[in-house]
Design goal:
five-stranded parallel beta sheet; 9 helices; single chain; alpha/beta; 10 strands; rod-shaped; disordered N terminus
């Protein structure tokens, strides 16, 4: 446990020769083991105590340390407290309202001004005077809770525990929101990629539809084996366009972008345009999809 008393210098808080504590000390029978370890699961939480009264600072450090916190920084100068807050991103700030010079209200105002887009600074104000006006002013400036003096150790631990639970839930929600935002960005990128690919498919099929020379027909004879004669022909499409590939892939691509029937009709029209070249007794067979027929 470390502290900054009146400056940015760090020094250990001594448990010996403490000044008279502004706290109601509990007798052994008034506390239980679970009370003394209530904050153990938040052991690594970053806590700042800002109070011009060294007795209050020592009392709060003692109570919170006994409850399980291991990362407590302190300042008896409000400016030093603001410096600590700017570099440690604290999970809880215990702030005395009544200090000479820059008081707790001024500290709250500066915290609000420097909190950025997050707008969340978890402050518990410590006040000896708990009039409605005092409390309302502190809450309106962003304080999340308050502790009245003389300090009650159990109340201090419970209020800090509640603040830490809210803080970690808030942090978890932020992390979830960031993860969701990243996931949405990835989904948007995937959707944009699919849209670009769709656009390329449409452009390719539309180029074939626009050019008569992009589609040629060949005719495969259909033979009556008993008569050994040609009785008809099957019209087969051949595409003269990039990329060079089999006809089924062209029709598959057209169908994927809703242009399947249009490309099939182009092929049927191209086949019918050459029907006059066929023998009178021969039939013409064309291949079409159920979608075109329906």
């Amino acid at each position: 446990i470390h502290t900054t008393l009146g400056s940015s210098d760090w020094s250990a808080v001594s448990t010996a020769n403490r000044p008279k504590l502004a706290i109601r000390l509990l007798f052994a029978h008034e506390t239980q083991a679970h009370d003394r370890e209530m904050l153990e699961r938040f052991a690594n939480a970053r806590v700042i105590v800002v109070d011009d009264n060294p007795a209050n600072v020592a009392a709060l450090v003692s109570v919170l340390g006994d409850a399980g916190l291991r990362n407590i920084a302190c300042a008896t100068n409000p400016r030093a407290g603001l410096d600590l807050a700017s570099v440690t991103d604290p999970d809880v700030i215990l702030l005395d309202l009544h200090m000479p010079g820059l008081d707790g209200y001024g500290v709250l105002e500066e915290l609000a001004a420097t909190s950025g887009e997050n707008g969340h600074f978890p402050v518990v104000v410590v006040m000896g005077e708990t009039t409605p006006d005092t409390l309302h002013r502190a809450l309106s400036l962003g304080a999340r809770d308050f502790i009245a003096t003389p300090l009650d150790p159990v109340e201090v631990v419970l209020r800090v525990r509640n603040m830490l639970e809210n803080r970690f839930l808030h942090s978890a929600l932020q992390d979830q929101n960031f993860a969701l935002h990243d996931e949405l960005d990835e989904m948007k990128e995937d959707d944009d990629r699919v849209q670009r690919e769709q656009h390329r498919h449409v452009e390719r099929i539309e180029r074939v539809l626009a050019r008569d020379s992009a589609l040629a027909m060949v005719f495969q004879p259909i033979v009556d084996l008993t008569e050994r004669s040609i009785v008809g022909v099957e019209a087969l499409s051949r595409f003269v366009a990039e990329p060079m590939r089999s006809p089924d892939l062209w029709f598959e691509e057209a169908a994927s972008v809703g242009l399947g029937p249009a490309l099939e009709m182009k092929a049927v029209s191209a086949a019918l345009a050459q029907a006059a070249r066929l023998p009178d007794e021969a039939f013409l067979a064309v291949n079409v999809s159920p979608e075109l027929l329906l």
